[in-house]
Amino acid sequence: MILAAEPGLADFGKLLVYSAMAVYTVAFLAYIAEWTFGSRSKVARTAAALGAGAPPGKPAAADGDAVRVTVRAAGGSTRVLTRPRVITRSATPARDGVPDGPGAAGGDERGDTYGRIAVSLTVLAFLLHAGGVLLRALAVQRAPWANMYEFSTTFSLVAVGGFLGFLAARRNVRWLGLPLVTTVLLDLGLAVTVLYTETDQLPPALQSIWLWVHVSLAIVCGAMFYLGMVATVAFLLRDRYEGRLADGGTPGRFSASVLERLPSSVSLDKFAYRINAVVFPLWTFTIIAGAIWAESAWGRYWGWDPKEVWSLITWLGYACYLHARATAGWRGRKAAYLAIAAFLCFLFNYYGVNMFVDDSLHSYAGVED
Amino acid sequence: MSGGDDAGNAAPPTGPDTDGAPDADSNADSHADAAAVAPGSGSFGGVRAPGPLGAAAWTARELTGWARWSWRQLTSMRVALILLFLLALATVPGSLIPQRDANPLLVAEFKDRHATLGDLYERFQMFEVYSSVWFSAVYILLFVSLAGCIVPRTWQFAGQLRGRPPRAPRRLTRMPAYTSWRTARDPDDVLRAAHGLLRRGRFRTARAAGSVAAEKGYLREAGNLLFHGALIVLLLAFAAGQLYRSEGGKLVMAGGGFANTLIQYDDFRSGALFDAEDLEPFHFDLDEFHASFHRSGPDLGTPIDFRAEVTYWRAGDDEDEGREATIRVNHPLSVGDAKVYLIGHGFAPVVTVTDGQGEVAFGGPVPFLPQDSALTSSGVIKVTDYVNRDGEPDQLGFQGFFSPTFRLNAERGPHSSFPDPDDPVLTLTGYHGNLGLDSGIPQNVYQLNTRHLEQFTDGSGDPLRVNLRPGDSWELPDGRGTLTFEGYERWASFQISTPAANGWALAGSVGAVLGLTASLLIQRRRIWVRAVPDRDGPPGTTLVEMASLGRTESAKIPEELGDLAAALQAHAPPLPGPGDTPAEAAAAPGTSEKSVASSEMPAQPSAGHREGAVP
Ligand code: HEM
Fold this sequence. Notes:
The complex is a heterodimer.
Chain A: H1 7-38, H2 45-50, E1 60-61, E2 68-72, E3 78-82, E4 87-88, H3 109-140, H4 148-168, H5 177-193, H6 209-246, H7 253-258, H8 265-298, H9 306-324, H10 333-356
Antiparallel strand pairs in A: 1-4, 2-3
Helix pairs in contact in A: 1-3, 1-5, 3-4, 4-5, 4-6, 6-8, 6-10, 8-9, 9-10
Chain B: H1 3-10, H2 30-37, H3 51-74, H4 77-91, H5 93-96, H6 104-113, H7 115-123, H8 133-162, E1 177-183, H9 187-200, E2 204-208, E3 211-216, H10 218-244, E4 246-253, E5 257-259, E6 267-270, E7 282-293, E8 303-314, E9 323-328, E10 333-335, E11 338-354, E12 360-365, E13 369-370, E14 377-387, E15 393-403, E16 406-409, E17 413-416, E18 425-433, E19 453-455, E20 466-468, E21 473-475, E22 482-498, H11 502-521, E23 525-533, E24 542-550, H12 556-571, H13 583-586
Helix pairs in contact in B: 4-8, 6-7, 8-10, 9-12, 10-11
Bound molecules: protoporphyrin IX containing FE.
Protoporphyrin IX containing FE (HEM) sits between chains B (3, 7, 11, 75, 77, 80, 84, 142, 145-146, 149, 224, 228, 231, 519-520, 551-552) and A (319, 322-323, 326).
């Protein structure tokens, strides 16, 4: 063996991924407990805000009702400033009065405890998961994203990292925990069974700094786009829920319990938009890095290879989404559908092209047939 | 609608109620006006004067009217969005249906298997999607729309840069972010402080009676224009690249060479406007070729590295002053405009054939083409200048495999198990007769047309097949001479590309990313501060109002307003007491005062339109 690939390390890495999956599973149960206990509280704030009593478009304060700022001086004295209350309006003024839901725990104390446990477990699982990916990288002595096993494990690692990052930045995203951990478990399950490949070296065509840039960015973009997509789906559900309430309808018990606890549709929409808007330039750069790589490996920067085609389609999809948000009559639900379609294109590029389209030059998928 | 205006009333803050409303769009209505003047007499032409002259004038008005209407449609955000979406859809089939450019063999195979579908696809240019009429139509329309959109927007933006931030609307309460308080300070003092504050915050500011207007984040618009402009540069660069580029392949034996002229290529493709005179004059020799492979572990047999050591000369170089270079995968050799890529490698068995008279009829390396990753290679040897034992001209053909590391099993027959030449074996069967080379039909050098050939057989009539190791000779039957397997050489195949406009494409991409980043991360926003004597409060109190309007909804904009308000309160301390937010009263429905919304802020404060008010 010329380059020492260390199968022992790789096995240990796989073991760590299995442990991470076990911890994610417990975290998953804890999230379920959080939602279950949370369902006992009856908080129908949305209906109240949309009900006949409230004037349409009753503005909400920008940052909740936190208008007091406590300033602690060096000496230890504190003084309280009353920060001016800023009133905001959004693109859907009728929904501005709708407060964000109380979160999965629904204000229930035990629910909240379970939620905190779930988050702690997610952190632990994330660390194990990161260890697994790191060991894999050490085992193969290169960046761990040359085949679908490595791509998938890194992908879900970044998605969980993004989620924990938002939590650390005190964003109202704990509700994301359950759907995220569910899909991470699916992704890892797929990775260790169907997609697993032994450690291997990169064929010469894949050895390039641009590979590193291109693929690592693709993973980051995909993971963040994924979080954006979950928020978009939540937006669609929540928007329909609010719409039904505004029309005086009574939503089903399930949506009344679950959707009531999500952030308001306005918040979800903004959250999803901000993720997609920040990631889009990054995705553009990812494609360009890929083109530079293609130019040095194959002598043309663009050759309508299926992988290239689908990354362009994904790009056009997100461009449509961003455009739609600036086009009369296309904001809100229609734009949201475009964002989801764009993410599905990303997913197809990642799994579909590797598995179903066989004459792609990007044949590094490494899945045994 | 011009793109700018449209984007204006379309862009966020607030209000599905503005959607589709013809509101601020003054020029979108000529259509309706014209129709109103003379109902039934045409869409744009107005009243038709009697006589042929009148009819001509009417037709002209009608045509220009329609033309302008179509142009406005084409450059509207909505049509741009639809075209963008169509382009995404149109891009899909090319990735699912085999494309002639990329793989003509797959296309032929597909047409064999699906005759009717193949014909249908052929009719709709599905085998060359990316150069088809319909695909081109979509992207050309999109880019015309793009150009028609960014030119007016650029002018508008230039105007805004020269102008001053627009005055405060009458009703600041309707802005996406708003705050207010009462203070004992004099309105003028408050405004002076606010002005200073905003200027220190690097806003462009303008003072008016009773208010200050400020604006910031022009880089957003600049970035957006840069992005859309860069897309046009990118498209033109891509088109130029397709038209002017050239690309060809050449298989070179180790020790052999290549000169960059048209006739030396094995295969050659070029864009419509490429001129063979433009080929970069240079030539190179392949001195050595190295390949290394994993010899153990899970990756047994997969490549580690390929290197082609070459010496090259540019036009005017001395023959004994060649420059040395190494070409590897991902590391092409650049010579002037041209780039030489290493794309493949293989073996060429060296054989010598003597004829029936004992004379050498053929000698030299014959490149065989790899069939699998262990480099089982197939090829043919054609001996044309041959005479048999009786001195009569005949021709010989051999067909077979070269296996660098020979294995023989029942399932696969002779094949190679490792790509390095650990146990090289040449496996051949032979023919004599007419190779069919003078039939006028071009022949593939890697195939044997056995129609007019007779195979060498053993006594029982089975084809003769021999396995030769280096140095082995094969006595051909009936005294037809011998074939000696002398050894093997390596060859490498190269692609020589002369790309065009790559620099422009790169510049376009960089511009697009930079523009996009500025456009999506920078907030363009306006802030207004108004300070007037408070009519409802005790004498001497001042009502301070602040509002901001962003082109997109961002949580940062209200936050910034809060910070600025907090900073201004240091100069204009709020009076205690209720009603620090008169907004709630003011925003109550039913009031119908018009807001004075400025007309050129891209993001209209659509709050101003909420009750159908048109600025
Ligand atoms: C190749 C086609 C196009 C692509 C990929 C594209 C992409 C984009 C993207 C990603 C944005 C979001 C940037 C931002 O929000 O600032 C945007 C904004 C915009 N685009 Fe395009 N665009 C294209 C064609 C057009 C055309 C034809 C028009 C003219 C009708 C146009 C007008 C605009 C305008 C006015 C904005 C600004 C919207 C805003 O400020 O929020 N675009 N475009």
